[in-house]
Design a protein that fits this description.
The protein is α/β, with parallel strands linked by helices and 449 residues long. It is 30% helix and 18% strand. 54% of the residues are buried.
Length: 449
Amino acid sequence: MISLPQAAPRVAKLTALSIGVALLASACGGTSTPTATTSAAGAAGSIACPAPSATAGATSTATETGAVPESTTTTPTPLKIGSLLPTTGSLAFLGPPEIAGVNLGIKEVNDAGGVLGKPVQVIHRDSGDTKTDIATQSTTALLGQGVSAIVGAASSGVSKTVINQITGAGVVQFSPANTSPDFTTWNDKNLYWRTAPSDVLQGKVLGNYMATCGAQTVGMIVLNDAYGTGLQKNVKEAFEAAGGQVVAEELFNEGDSQFSSQVDKVIAAKPDAIALITFDQAKSIVPLLTGKGVKPTQLFMVDGNTSDYSKDFKAGTLKGAQGTIPGTFAKDDFKKKLLAIDPALKDYSYAGESYDAVNLIALASEAAKSTKGTEIAKQLKAVSESGEKCNTFPSCVTLLRNGKDIDYDGQSGPVTFSDAGDPTEAFIGIYEYQDDNKYQPSKEEFGKL
């Protein structure tokens, strides 16, 4: 058994973030600069990250509202929303919280009387992953049933296979979890939107955070697709800007089942920390790393693999490992509502973003006085900025029907869109694994793009 040499803990210099990102470090900031860019021998496990925030996972407060006034405009065609979310494939663990978020949003919209005088309809379909053609088949089925908007996909790689099909049909594609920067400049006819921030932000936060925890060298094991390589690039830029050195970057492809070569090469580089930019392949990679003496405190994960591993690993396997997930923490009252929708939920990743997607589509439809996808898209930016603050469908639609301009902020945090359909500001949650291999909220970083 070996353990990777560790650098003495030090607080890394947090440099100004490029590409227009202004990162406001809530608990991880520092001022000193590392004295070396290579790992120094030291005691295993000497990485020391900032202590968790005392307010992590606090209860949120929803806007109170009275009776919702009836819509003055009614529609002959009810708003129909499809979901294209994973129930199979390498991101299947993200499906339940995302689907629960969609269903909770639909329930609350319909409990408040629906959109334009009609209940909203929802149709769920599996997105699969990039190893299959499930997403294309599901999209064809959804479009054939006349949906105005599709919530999904979760995977950036999957979205790339269907975005032209969806937007080419004049339908809104609204992803709760796509983070590839490529979508910012996609020719999508202004019909592609997302509540998850680009990986420009998650990458900056993770790269800076590993440096703040004392790592001077980092190795990466990366999924070779739009999500993995895009996040890899931004993590590397941030870590190196903070004075660190990336000493190993090993790629694998979707569908691979053997990772010993990548693990051995990363360990041979003797990094202080290891970033795993994967999906559920982490179930195979983590035991290979820990079996060769890597300490869980040296592991840093991302939204694609920060999941509940309580049934996959023996107790303590991941204790002290950390992961990042875009979005603010799922608050206690929101979790209770989600559990009422799906009592079997174990993860809450992107549930808030999915819930917000439904609310924003419904509110934009009300503002447009139309259930047509192209008209809904024209109002999505307007309902997210420069108006009276509100954070539930009933409170927001009441304002709209009273002739007010609204600014929806939701369960995923503040939602303000750019002209490209990207969030212009967002939280990145940092989570820490406990002895039971479940992750708990640790701290949040807020950033603007």
